[in-house]
Write a structure and sequence with these properties.
The complex is a heterodimer of chains A (315) and B (520). Chain A has helices spanning 2-29, 34-39, 46-56, 62-74, 88-123, 128-142, 145-159, 175-209, 212-220, 224-261, 267-276, 280-308. With 315 residues, chain A is an all-alpha fold. In chain A, helix 7 (145-159) crosses helix 8 (175-209), helix 9 (212-220) crosses helix 10 (224-261) and helix 10 runs parallel beside helix 11. The radius of gyration of chain A is 24 Å and the shape is globular. The relative contact order of chain A is 0.15. With 520 residues, chain B is of the alpha+beta class. In chain B, the strands form 4 sheets. In chain B, strands 1, 8, 9, 10, 11, 12, 13, 14, 15, 16 and 17 form an 11-stranded mixed β-sheet that branches. Helices cover 34% and strands 22% of the residues of chain B. Residues 1-31 of chain B have low confidence and may be disordered. The radius of gyration of chain B is 24 Å and the shape is globular. In chain B, helix 10 crosses helix 12 and helix 14 packs across helix 15. Classes of the chains: A mainly alpha (315), B alpha+beta (520). Chains A and B meet through helix 2, helix 3, helix 5, helix 7 and helix 11 of A and helix 7 and helix 13 of B.
C-alpha cells in the first residue's frame, strides 16, 4: 500500500509539472501580453508600458518567470492576477464552489439517470422501451451542452417565468434559490455524461446477466430483485465507473462554456477571461487546480474499484 | 499665503463660471420634477467589476459601477458638456497653466467625515502614483495645493486645453485617506461621496448599494437601493429582463432589441455613441503609402450601407469627427471625399492615377470578440470590390489583433475607436506623428502642427478654427477611414424613468434613475 501511495504521488507531481510547463510556455507563445490588453487601443507610451512590464515581471526570460512561479507555488503562493493585482488564490477559492457544485450535480444527474435507464434498457432488451431509450442516448451524446443550456433557459423563461434562472446564490445562503439556479445547467451538462453512462450500463448489465453465477442464483430460487441487487448490479458497475470518470473530464470542459451561458461565477469563467486578458498567473493557477482535480478523480476511481470488488488489487 | 492678485482674478472669474453652472444645473433639475422617491432597481451588466477601487482598476466595467458610490471634481452630461460635481466652479489663468477649483462645503464621505480640499489633493496624487493608463493622463500636473478647506489649485507643466475633460470622469474620484489606509486599497469596499453607499460585493456575481441620505444634493438619489447582477451572456440577460429578475440591461445585439420591443412590459432606448467603426490603414505599407489610394477608399465607401448592412441599421454615418461631438463636428458637406462618397468614378480615377487601375489585394484584420467588426469588414469587402480592390479578411483573436495594431504589423484593420468628449483625442492622439496611439504611423506636418495648436489654445473660438482645418486635413490624408458611429442599446422595464444614454458609454444617468411604481 505504501508503495502504491508513493508511486501515485510521484505520478501526480509529474503530471502537474508537465501540465504547468506546457501551459506556461503555450501562454507566452500567444501574441500580446497583459500590458497590451490593459491599454487596448489607447496606445500608451512605450516607456509606460515597459515600466508596467517590469512591475509585472514580464521583462524576464520565460524560464526565470516559470521558476519564480513554481517557487511561489511550492510555498503555497499562487501569485497575484496580472490584470487586477488581486491574489489568484482568493479568486480561485471564490470561484471553486460554483464549479464544484455544477460538476457534482451534473455528474449525479447524469450518472443516476444513465444507470437507471441503462438497467431498464437491459432488462427490457429488444422491447419498445429499449428501442426508445437507445436512440435517445445517441442524441444525448451528440447535443452540445451550451446549445441545450440556452434552449432550457429560454424554455424556462417562457413556460416557467417564476423559476429563478439567473443570479447565482451560494447553497448555504439560500438552498432553494441555489438549486433553482443550478438545475438547468446541471441538466444540460449531465445529459452527455448520462447518455454515455446509459449505453455502458446497458452493455455491462446485459453482459453480467448472462453469466453462469447469475443463472445459478436464479436456479437457487432467489427472487429477481434480489438477484439484481446482490449479484448483477455491483458486478456491472466497474466499467460504468470508468465511463463516469472519463466523462467527468469532458464534463469539466463543458462546464467552462456553460458557466458563461448561465452567468455562473465559476473557475471556467475565470479561466476564459484570464486567457483573453493574458493574465498568466491566473491561467496557470486555474489550470493547476483543474489538473489536480483530474488526478484526484482518477485516484478516487482506483479506491472505488477496490471497494466494489475486493479482488482487485490496487496498484 | 495667496496674494490679493489671485483673489481678485478669482472673483472676476467666478461669476461667469457660476452662472454657467447654475444654467446647466437648472434644466436638469426641472426635468426630474415628477420623480418619485423609493423603490429598488436590479441592473444586469455584461461583466464584473474586477475590483472596486476607482484609482487602481482599469476595466471598463468597473467604471460603470464607480459612478454610484463616487464623485469627481467634474462630470459630463449627455451633450458632452462639463458640469460641476464636487467642484462648483473653476477658473483658468491667462497663461492656461493654473486651474482653480471651488469646492462644495457640504460634501460628506460615506463614513460621515466632511470632505476637504486635502482629500482632493490626496486622491489625485494617489492616481498619479498608481501607474495606470489613466495616471498617464495626469502626467502633465506640475503641482497641486489646497487653499483653505474649499479651494484646490492645480498647476500644469504645459498648456493642455482638454485638462478639464480629463478630470470629468469618475475615475478621478475623491476618496478618503483613512479608509484607504485601513483596508490597504478599495478593491473590495467602496467609500466615496456618491449618491449610493456600498452594502455588499460578491465578486463575479453582484454588487449591492443603498441610498446615501447625506448626498450633497438633498433631492437625490431617488431609489432606495440598487443591485448590479453580472450576466455575461446576452440571451440570459434578455431572459432575465423579460421575467422581471432585472429591471435594466445594456444590450449589444440589435436582434435582442427586437425581442424586447415585442414585450409589453419593457421598453428600449437606442443611444448613438461617439465610438466609431473605422478602417485603420497602415500608411507605411504599399500601396497604402500613396495618399491617392487611401483617398480612393475614403470616397468609394458607402457609409449608409455600412450602417444598414453592417450595423443592423443602428448607427449614424460619421466624418472625421462624430456627429455627437456637436460643438466641433463640421457638416460632411464641407469635408473633401466625405462630401461626395460614394463616388466610384472618382475612386477609380484616383486608383488609376496612383498606378493601380486594376485594383489590388488588401489584407484586413478583424476580431470576433466585438459584434460589429467582422460584419462591417464584410460590407466593405463588397463595396471595395466595386473599384477593383479585393479585400482579404483575416479573422484573428482580439489580443493578437491588438499586438499587430500597436506594432504596425498590418495592412488594414476593421475595428472601433473609442469616443471622448474633447477633439484632442480624435486628432493628436490618433494622428500626431509622435503619438503612440497613431497606429497608422501617419507623419503629416500640417496635422502635427494643427493638433499641437488645438491642444494648447484655450479659447473655444480659436480651437474651433483649428479643428475645422484639421477635419479637412484628416480627410485629405485619410490614414483612418471613418465609417459610422455605433449605438448602444438599453432595455428596461416600463417602470424605469429618467435614464439617458451617454455618447461615451459612461452611464452617468443611471445614478439618477427613478421608478414610476414608487409614485402612489
Amino acid at each position: 500500500m505504501l508503495g502504491y501511495l508513493v508511486r501515485k504521488t510521484g505520478w501526480t507531481l509529474l503530471v502537474l509539472l508537465v501540465v504547468s510547463v506546457i501551459v506556461s510556455g503555450a501562454l507566452r507563445l500567444i501574441p500580446s501580453d497583459a500590458v497590451d490588453l490593459l491599454f487596448q487601443a489607447d496606445g500608451g507610451s512605450d516607456a509606460l508600458k515597459e515600466e508596467m512590464r517590469r512591475r509585472l515581471g514580464l521583462d524576464r526570460p520565460w524560464p526565470v518567470q516559470y521558476l519564480a512561479w513554481v517557487t511561489g507555488m511550492l510555498q503555497g503562493d499562487f501569485g497575484t492576477s496580472m490584470r487586477t493585482g488581486i491574489p489568484v488564490a482568493r479568486q480561485i477559492v471564490q470561484s471553486m464552489p460554483v464549479t464544484l457544485e455544477l460538476v457534482l450535480l451534473g455528474t449525479l444527474f447524469g450518472s443516476f439517470g444513465g444507470i437507471v435507464f441503462g438497467i431498464l434498457a437491459a432488462r427490457n432488451r429488444g422491447t419498445f422501451w429499449d428501442l426508445l431509450i437507445q436512440p435517445v442516448g445517441l442524441v444525448g451524446l451528440s447535443i452540445p451542452s451550451f446549445w441545450l443550456g440556452s434552449l432550457l433557459l429560454m424554455g424556462a423563461g417562457l413556460y416557467l417565468p417564476q423559476m429563478r434562472t439567473v443570479g447565482y446564490v451560494g447553497f448555504f445562503e439560500d438552498p432553494l434559490a441555489n438549486l433553482s439556479v443550478m438545475l438547468l445547467p446541471a441538466l444540460a451538462l449531465g445529459l452527455a455524461l448520462g447518455s454515455a453512462v446509459m449505453r455502458m450500463t446497458r452493455t455491462s448489465v446485459l453482459d453480467v446477466m448472462n453469466q453462469d453465477f447469475v443463472r445459478t442464483a436464479r436456479a437457487k430460487g432467489l427472487r429477481e430483485p434480489a438477484v439484481m441487487r446482490r449479484h448483477i448490479l455491483l458486478n456491472s458497475l466497474i466499467p460504468v465507473i470508468t465511463v463516469i470518470t472519463i466523462q467527468m473530464g469532458v464534463l469539466i470542459g463543458g462546464s467552462i462554456v456553460l458557466e458563461r451561458v448561465f452567468a455562473l461565477p465559476g473557475l471556467g469563467r475565470l479561466l476564459v477571461s484570464a486567457i483573453g486578458e493574458r493574465d498568466y498567473t491566473t491561467v496557470q493557477g486555474v489550470t493547476f487546480v483543474l489538473a489536480f482535480a483530474f488526478v484526484m478523480i482518477n485516484f478516487a476511481t482506483d479506491l472505488i474499484y477496490k471497494v466494489l470488488d475486493p479482488r482487485v488489487t490496487v496498484g | 499665503m495667496p496674494t490679493d492678485g489671485i483673489y481678485l482674478r478669482r472673483l472676476a472669474g467666478l461669476l461667469p463660471a457660476l452662472a454657467v453652472a447654475a444654467l446647466l444645473a437648472g434644466p436638469a433639475a426641472a426635468e426630474q420634477q415628477n420623480a418619485c422617491h423609493g423603490g429598488f432597481l436590479n441592473i444586469g451588466y455584461v461583466a464584473d467589476a474586477v475590483g472596486l477601487d476607482p484609482h487602481l482598476t482599469t476595466a471598463q466595467n468597473s467604471e460603470l459601477m464607480f459612478q454610484f458610490a463616487y464623485s469627481g471634481l467634474l462630470k459630463i452630461d449627455d451633450k458632452m458638456q462639463i458640469l460641476p460635481d464636487i467642484a462648483t466652479s473653476w477658473q483658468v489663468s491667462e497663461d492656461g497653466l493654473t486651474y482653480t477649483f471651488d469646492l462644495r462645503d457640504n460634501v460628506k464621505f460615506h463614513n460621515g467625515r466632511l470632505m476637504t480640499a486635502d482629500d482632493v489633493i490626496y486622491s489625485l496624487q494617489r492616481i498619479i502614483d498608481a501607474g495606470t493608463p489613466f495616471s498617464a493622463r495626469l502626467d502633465n500636473i506640475a503641482s497641486m495645493r489646497a487653499v483653505g478647506n474649499d479651494v484646490v489649485e492645480i498647476v500644469l507643466k504645459e498648456r493642455f486645453a482638454p485638462f478639464l475633460s480629463v478630470l470629468a470622469t469618475v475615475k478621478a474620484a475623491i476618496v478618503p485617506r483613512e479608509e484607504v489606509e485601513k483596508h490597504g486599497d478599495l478593491q473590495n469596499v467602496m467609500v466615496g461621496t456618491g449618491p449610493y453607499k456600498f452594502v455588499e460585493y460578491k465578486p463575479g456575481t453582484s454588487l449591492r448599494l443603498e441610498k446615501n441620505p447625506d448626498y450633497y444634493d438633498p433631492d437625490l438619489p431617488y431609489l432606495d437601493g440598487l443591485e448590479i447582477k453580472v450576466i455575461p451572456d446576452e440571451v440570459t440577460r434578455v431572459a432575465a429582463l423579460r421575467s422581471g429578475q432585472i429591471d435594466f440591461a445594456a444590450l449589444g445585439d440589435p436582434l435582442s432589441l427586437r425581442i424586447i420591443e415585442s414585450d409589453s412590459s419593457a421598453k428600449t432606448l437606442t443611444v448613438p455613441m461617439l465610438q466609431r467603426n473605422v478602417l485603420v490603414l497602415n500608411v507605411n505599407q504599399a500601396p497604402l503609402d500613396d495618399v491617392r489610394v487611401r483617398q480612393a477608399i475614403a470616397v468609394a465607401v458607402d457609409r449608409q450601407e455600412v450602417v444598414d448592412l453592417g450595423l443592423g441599421g443602428f448607427g449614424q454615418v460619421s466624418g472625421p469627427f462624430p456627429d455627437g461631438l456637436a460643438a466641433w463636428a463640421l457638416p460632411r458637406s464641407e469635408i473633401p471625399f466625405y462630401d461626395e462618397a460614394p463616388n466610384l468614378e472618382k475612386a477609380k480615377a484616383l486608383l488609376a492615377e496612383a498606378g493601380y487601375p486594376d485594383g489590388f489585394t488588401l489584407q484586413t484584420y478583424a476580431a470576433p470578440q466585438y459584434a460589429s467588426h467582422i460584419p462591417v469588414a464584410e460590407v466593405l469587402q463588397q463595396q471595395l470590390a466595386r473599384i477593383g480592390i479585393k479585400m482579404d479578411i483575416q479573422v484573428i483573436e482580439w489580443g493578437v489583433l491588438l499586438k499587430n495594431w500597436s506594432s504596425n504589423n498590418f495592412a488594414s484593420i476593421s475595428m472601433t475607436y473609442a469616443g471622448r468628449s474633447d477633439p484632442y483625442y480624435y486628432t493628436y492622439e490618433r494622428l500626431h506623428s509622435k503619438s503612440p496611439g497613431n497606429a497608422s504611423r501617419l507623419a503629416d506636418a500640417e496635422i502635427d502642427r494643427l493638433s499641437e495648436e488645438g491642444m494648447e489654445l484655450t479659447s473655444p473660438e480659436e480651437r474651433k478654427a483649428v479643428y475645422d482645418k484639421l477635419q479637412v486635413r484628416m480627410a485629405e490624408t485619410s490614414a483612418i477611414i471613418y465609417l459610422a458611429t455605433t449605438s448602444e442599446f438599453f432595455a428596461m422595464r416600463k417602470s424605469v424613468e429618467g435614464f439617458k444614454g451617454m455618447p461615451d458609454s459612461s452611464r452617468g444617468y443611471l445614478a439618477n434613475v427613478w421608478l414610476n411604481t414608487a409614485c402612489n
